[in-house]
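Q: What structure does this chain adopt?
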Amino acid sequence: MADSYTEVTSQNWFSRIGESIKGILFGIIVIPVTIVVLWFNEGRALTTANSLKEGKADMIHVAADKVDPANNKKLVHMTGEAKADGPVVDTDYGVSVPALRLVRTEEIYQWVENKKTEKKEKVGGSEETTTTYTYDKKWVDEPVKSSEFKKPEGHTNEGDLISGNANISAEKVTLGAFSVPEDFVKQMGSPIKRAVTDADLATLPADLKEGTKIQDGAFYIGPNPKEPKVGDVRVSFEIVKPGTFSILAAQLGETFEPYQTKAGDAIDFIEEGTVSAETMFKNAASANSMITWLVRFLGFLFMAFGFMAIMRPLSVLGSVIPFIGSIIGMGTGLISFVLAAAISFLVIAIAWIFVRPLLGIAMLALAIGAFIYTRKLAAASKPAAA
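A:
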């Protein structure tokens, strides 16, 4: 059952002004950093796109049932049956499973602190902050330091993980006539749950047998699984079964290694099932596009926060009358987002001008338009701010 603790603090107007001025430094640092990140992100995206294009041109299809020395160091695509010569063994728990790899997840039952903050401006420019700390017991993947809680009393954590999480590969995995390197095996497949059995319980190391039970297909280390206590641990397992896999990598004798392209990126893809080379390249291109847009969005967002930090003193100055401070805050927030969008477009446009002139010029035109719009917004907000 959750419990809570509420703390109310107040900050006067002069203190808020001083704090907002310090925030300007944050904006001055964040804005150029995000510009650099956006620039390098475009370069990374182009490098990956060119690497995939180069790989698609160099790739050859080969059969998995025979090793041809003539293909050594070449980028090859093949589909075959992946098998393990022996079981995967988790020596910490004595679990042995016929699989390509075994994923172990350990969790510990702990107190967890959640924090919710509400701020309210008052006439005169002061600000009242109400912070509510709530405490729940949850299963987490690492111990929580209760000494750092706002209210550690009554929420003391104890215990530790036993061995931690693990991703264990079979000692030898083959794909047809080829041997699959361990770092490739760790990428293979989507693990599925493997429930522990009484036989697994019987093979536990002696120091773990006492006090360990089975609950919901997992080991439970604690007094009573139906009433978990702080410090109890549960251990679950997932496996990747032998089956059909497709690989796209450089052939290295009877095994594989990443294929280093001249464009810059290395290619080493492995997917479950019978997947064509064309589909694998398409999936890689989609992932590249997703990463590119994610970094663009985050860069824009952080840049906007940077501009908001720089303009923050204006809304604090106007907060002597809360309504005025809110209006100024909304205005500076809108300007910050438009300015961040314009600069983000500008950086991306300049980066693309070197490789795709038409697209880059179009984006540059949009950026200039956004700058003009920002100036108009700034001019229109001056009378309100005054």
